[in-house]
Design goal:
Structural class of chain A: alpha/beta
Protein name (chain A): Elongator complex protein 6
Helix content of chain A: 25-40%
Largest sheet of chain B: 9 strands, mixed
Low-confidence stretches of chain A: none
Number of strands of chain B: 9
Radius of gyration of chain A: 18 Å
Oligomer: heterodimer
Structural class of chain B: alpha/beta
Helix content of chain B: 25-40%
Distance between the termini of chain B: 88 Å
Family (chain A): Belongs to the ELP6 family.
Distance between the termini of chain A: 22 Å
Order of helices and strands of chain B: HEHEHEHEHHEHEEEEHH
Number of strands of chain A: 9
Shape of chain B: elongated
Pathway (chain A): tRNA modification; 5-methoxycarbonylmethyl-2-thiouridine-tRNA biosynthesis
Mean pLDDT of chain B: 83
Strand content of chain B: 15-25%
InterPro entries (chain A): ELP6, P-loop_NTPase
Strand order of the largest sheet of chain B: 3-2-4-5-1-6-7-8-9
Largest sheet of chain A: 9 strands, mixed
Biased composition (Acidic residues) (chain B): 264-280
Largest interface: A-B, 32 and 35 residues
Shape of chain A: globular
Strand content of chain A: 15-25%
Strand order of the largest sheet of chain A: 3-2-4-5-1-6-7-8-9
Low-confidence stretches of chain B: 208-215
Number of helices of chain A: 10
Mean pLDDT of chain A: 87
């Protein structure tokens, strides 16, 4: 899977992402494979990774990673090059009706109230911890999935300010790391947020269903738009492909060139 | 019109550029900054979406000394609580010395953090400053509602609405109000080279504006160049019209006939009225 997607992106698998703000917009239900691709890529490069899991628990990502040949448990506990923030669990603590007492140290509590300072400080502290392992590669922060915050009660304005602050400390800060944001695009209310991310990002990846409807041999369409980078204007480029997902891999092919058609 | 505005031949106090994600106005803003620093003594560039390094990498080396950068991005707070001078009015005013132009690479974050009328008030104060020659601001129309765009448009003397044609070609709807009050409306197409320099600015011609004759070309008779004959002469056409086709009724040979039904033994002819039981 790693080699195929890197080939499609036309990037060097040992040096990507390099100071990029990547926005993955998923208009289908099959776009999750790209998150596992990025986790796998970071692990193969032994790159410091801070992962904010808002849509799934750590066990889910670890199970998928093990299928793809990497062990997130040892990366988190032994190698210390992965910091996993259990966002799903922390958000559920904030919105739970039965928990009378809220943990004030929970960064999502203030985030859902409109102040993302504590959350940004948490990410900043995580980056400082990752810097201790002295990796030659810049750190990567992955957020999956940003639209969960919107559905949990945060306003688009608060999330826009959060993304801007994360961008400042991760990609524009001294570490010159990369930020990868995954967001599902199936609701109209997310348009404002997605439009802002589309303006701010340097790479936009959009995954959509086939316009013609469900097909068992073609699961969807992927479009990559290379916009001007964060520190240097560059020529925009776009590539399209269709894909079919398998248990451990993905098959990418040119539009209309599925094996089922040929 | 756009090249006149870029070159400074058309005076405009406040230029509002409106763009969407698929047609970024940032490329035009880069070119605008380069044109401004060449002809104006001082330029102030307030950056919110890209750091000053982004602009200095693209602009000529001598531009960096003549452009004052204000990095608004790093100073945008993580929370919308508390009023802060997000448009850096005080800092900009202090930096103004002599004829100055001011550029905002995006007004999205200031509008999100402050109310739109407050942003308009600050912009109005900057526009009316006697030392300010021109203010140019970019706004993302796909993030803000129509009311916000309209409020800012009411301040602007020129509005450039950017929409995409391809990655390096954009269509610009321009509305420019001259000092005399005369309003011009034009649609122009701008193409960029791979370095994002403005390559051409031409009047926009869509395919719908092109006359139908120029699309289809002169009508050519397809039978003219054939090596064999597919058409008929007049006598042949007359002969064809005389042919009697077998399925057409000939009135003279028509014979009148009638059907005679002769019942056989198996027929059960019932003379009774089938509806006699009904009380009609």
């Amino acid at each position: 899977m790693l080699a195929q997607i890197c080939q499609f992106f036309a990037v060097d698998s040992s040096n990507f992402p390099k100071n990029e703000l990547v926005f993955v917009g998923d208009k289908s239900s099959d776009g999750g494979f790209l998150i596992h691709y990025f986790i796998n890529l970071c692990q193969k490069q032994n790159r410091p990774l801070c992962f904010v899991g808002l849509s799934q628990s750590f066990n889910h990502y670890n199970s998928v990673a093990q299928k793809l040949g990497t062990n997130l448990l040892s990366a988190r506990d032994e190698n210390k090059n992965l910091i996993f923030i259990e966002g799903l669990k922390l958000i559920s603590e904030c919105v739970s009706l039965h928990s009378g007492q809220f943990n004030e140290s929970n960064p999502f509590l203030s985030l859902l109230k409109g102040d993302s300072t504590q959350f940004v400080n948490t990410i900043d502290a995580s980056l400082a911890n990752l810097a201790k392992i002295q990796s030659p590669n810049a750190p990567v922060v992955i957020v999956d999935d940003l639209s969960v915050l919107l559905r949990s009660g945060a306003t688009p304005k608060d999330i826009i300010l959060l993304v801007n602050s994360l961008n400042n400390i991760i990609t524009l800060g001294p570490t010159k790391g990369s930020l990868i944001i995954f967001s599902s695009l199936d609701k109209d209310e997310e348009n404002e947020l997605c439009a802002f991310l589309s303006h701010l990002c340097s790479v936009k990846i959009e995954i959509t269903n086939l316009k013609s409807g469900y097909c068992k041999d073609v699961h969807g369409q992927i479009e990559v738009l290379w916009k001007d980078s964060l520190l240097n204007p560059r020529e925009p480029k776009t590539t399209h492909s269709q894909f079919k997902l398998f248990d451990k891999s993905v098959e990418l092919f040119a539009l209309g060139m599925s094996a089922a058609v040929l | 019109m756009l090249d006149d505005l870029l070159a400074g031949q058309e005076k405009s106090k406040f230029i509002l550029m409106q763009d969407a994600a698929d047609g970024p106005g940032r490329y035009l803003l880069l070119n605008w900054a380069r044109n401004l620093y060449k002809r104006v003594g001082k330029t102030i560039l307030v950056c919110y979406e890209r750091p000053p390094q982004y602009f200095t990498e693209w602009l000529p080396k001598d531009a960096t000394g003549r452009i004052t950068f204000i990095d608004g991005n790093l100073r945008v707070p993580a929370s919308s609580e508390g009023g802060c001078d997000i448009l850096f009015e005080k800092e900009i005013t202090e930096a103004i010395s002599g004829p100055t132009c001011i550029l905002f690479d995006s007004l999205t974050l200031p509008i999100l953090l402050r109310q739109v009328p407050q942003t308009c008030a600050v912009l109005h104060r900057l526009i009316t400053n006697e030392n300010v020659l021109q203010v140019l601001a970019l706004i993302h129309k796909d993030i803000h509602d129509q009311h916000t765009c309209d409020l800012l448009s009411s301040l602007a003397t020129s509005i450039v609405d950017v929409s995409p044609v391809s990655l390096l070609q954009h269509k610009h709807n321009i509305r420019h109000c001259r000092v005399t009050g005369k309003v011009f409306k034009t649609v122009e197409s701008v193409t960029y080279d791979s370095e994002l320099n403005v390559k051409t600015i031409t009047p926009w011609t869509s395919t719908t504006d092109v006359p139908a004759s120029s699309i289809t070309g002169p009508q050519v008779d397809p039978l003219a160049k054939l090596s064999f004959n597919l058409s008929l002469t007049e006598t042949e056409k007359e002969a064809r019209s005389q042919v009697k086709l077998p399925y057409i009724k000939d009135i003279e040979t028509e014979i009148s006939s009638r059907i005679i039904y002769q019942p056989d033994e198996a027929d059960d002819i019932d003379d009774e009225d089938p509806d006699e039981d009904l009380d009609i």
